Amino acid sequence: MARTIISTDQAPAAIGTYSQAVRSGDTVYISGQIPLVPASGEIVAGDIEAQINQVFDNLEAVASAAGGSLQQAVKINVYLIDLTHFPLVNQIMADRLNEPYPARAAMQVSALPKGVDVEADAVLVLD
What we know:
It is built from 2 helices and 6 strands, in the order E-E-E-H-E-H-E-E. By secondary structure, it is α+β, with helices and mostly antiparallel strands. The protein has a single domain, classed as CATH 3.30.1330.40. The chain is globular, with a radius of gyration of 14 Å.
């Protein structure tokens, strides 16, 4: 099956040897998004809530560039430096996504790129 590389300037440019997303058939694999503001390439100002929201803004931008929406996510992985922020992730996801919610994993990690506190990736299945 052919692969299509997804790229948009509405989400941060890749900072390594990866694509923002890859589509294969009806499945879109979105690379990990950190809370970078696309226009500036800088980490979003504010607290962990601002960081989590920026991560989901970036995921949504890539999903849109792939011809879909984060509502079509079947799996989201969330990486946190401090797992005490997990309830805030739940709240933000509940505000942004409709039921049925995607499968999800959340894990505490020791470090993330650019010293941010949160990263997330997603897998979508387009209708």
